[in-house]
User: Fold this.
Amino acid sequence: MGITPQPGIMDIALYQGGKSAIAGRTDVLKLSSNENPLGPPPSALAALAKAAAGVHLYPSTDHAGLRLAIGEVHGLDPDRVICGVGSDEVLQFVTQAFAGPGDEIIHTEHGFSLYPVLIHMAGATAVKVAERERQVDIDAIIAAVTPRTRVILVTNPGNPTGTMVPVSKLERLVDAVRDDIVIVLDGAYTEYADGYDGGTALAGSRPNVLMTRTFSKIYGLGGLRIGWGYADREMIDVMTRIRQPFNLSVLQLSAAEAAIRDRVWVENCAALNSAQRARLTGALRQLGWACDEAHGNFVLARLADEAEATAVDAALQADGILVRRVGGYGFPEGLRITVGDEDQTGRVITALTRWREGA
Ligand SMILES: *Cc1c(COP(=O)(O)O)cnc(C)c1O
Assistant:
């Protein structure tokens, strides 16, 4: 009998991250992982430097300082906040805590590719629900619920689609399904979506709704791995029991605390993103490529077909620009392009225009 892994583990396809290098080039523009073009906030770097002298001491196990900061900034009860190693870990807590072998977890057609990984890690069965015109289809989700459904995962705004489900539809979903089903609203791109609360009101008022948020995108701290969730105290208590007590280091905690209090940073990054996103969307459409109104820090360009996507991707790489192929997300004809700063956006538009004119 050799070693025998737990059910589901061997169904996991290893996560594919965005490419980060092109052989022989030092001027690579990485627009493949939705990272912040402005880098990390100086406020967080200062906090990191200060915290470095204290890394011989164990971090707090309750994350009280960071939860307090999150609570103050967002007007939330800190006792209803849980922090993780990226929001990915919070998503792992919820799938592991509420589903196991024989249970079903619903995710959507073009949803985050980490979800099936987490579902298999929990030993549960992944149920993939079709989207409608690149929009999460609430009615299709409701129709897919069975007595075995335990968790529903919804990304809003979507990645890689960039589209949004209005809060009224999210409310309809919560109202329509059994209250023992956990509904997760993954709000990784909330700060870029004008007027959206990320699911705060729903998570605040319904005992079975979890909102997840991250420091990896607008806060520019993807390399540090910090995220958080907000839900009813009872759900937080359940998830805290499977959270490792020292999951976040003193560096992660101090940088995140400084970053979340840096509201000027968030405002500036959101304003830059909004302007450059509109510019990139307009340029793509002008070049004859379809793309939906985007609500995150990236745009999904839909090219003629897979062959054209391959050709444009190759041309961009020849210009030192990395974007994301999204065949694995159901868009073989798609290229997901992270919104950069003014110069970076100009560089990608120039490269795309050159390909178009030469094609
Ligand atoms: C980037 C992203 C996250 C954030 O993951 P972290 O673990 O916080 O870095 C979560 N969900 C989606 C859909 C994302 O695109």
User: Anything to note?
Assistant: The chain has two domains: 9-39+264-358, 42-262. Residues 34, 86-88, 112, 155, 159, 186, 188, 214, 216-217, 222, 227 surround pyridoxal-5'-phosphate (CB under 6 Å).
